[in-house]
Amino acid sequence: MGVGIRRRITNWLLVSIKIGLGTFNNNMKNFKTFLSVALAASLGLVACNTGGIRHNPGRIYAPDMVYSRAYDAYTSNPNFTDSQTSRLPVPGTIARDHMLPDHLVEGDTNAYKTFNTTLKFTDDQVDEGGRLFNIYCGICHGAALDGNGPLFASGKFAAMPANLVSPNLVKLSVGQIYATIKFGKNAMGSYASQVDERQRWMIIAYIKKMQAKKGGDPFTMGVESTDASTPKTDTTKADIVKK
User: Fold this and answer.
1) Which H helix or E strand runs over 219?
2) 143: which residues sit within 8 A by CB, 6+ positions away?
3) Which carries the bigger pLDDT value, residue 57 or residue 161?
4) What pLDDT score was predicted for residue 60?
5) Is 67 left (phi over 0), alpha (psi -120 to 50) or beta?
6) Cα–Cα distance, 21 to 47 (Å, whole number)
7) Reported pTM
């Protein structure tokens, strides 16, 4: 390359630099905007995945928050012989706010009759039992507990559901009602999965309060006025009669 050509190229570069510097000085604001856009675009391109995996997010800021270090529920776990991550409670333990197991066995009618509870309920809790009754029981037994619920009144049932305020049922023991809710009876299925132990007793308290007004035994499942502010301890138990 000749000296003249090199000199021309050098002069062209110097002129280009001067023009660029002039433009830079006159358009500093535009340059900053351009620089910000270029930086953002560069970061976006860097974060993009080029490995051909469509759903891979690329770079992750905090991978330990995205990918759990612990075993997730219902996933295989090599630390246990059955490979299950979800575990049953340790035998003999009771979860907080849960009641002791009732130990009732389906079909043991003698145990049903002797089964009882020391739970006492406030008026609001009895009313909640009534609400639960209307949701789960009233559709068949009726809001008045007389067996004339919407399903029977509509003609869909050939046989009338149990009239809980009739003379032959008004004196049912609380254990018999509890067993019926837990295991079901005749055409009635079990409601053990719909209402827990405490809710069952609240429903029973409501039933016994209504039965007391229809010639049943005096209602004894309510909290006395002097104890209204003192919560009762769950001491539900069953006296199992050995056959």
Assistant:
1) none
2) 134, 149
3) 161
4) 72
5) beta
6) 32
7) 0.59
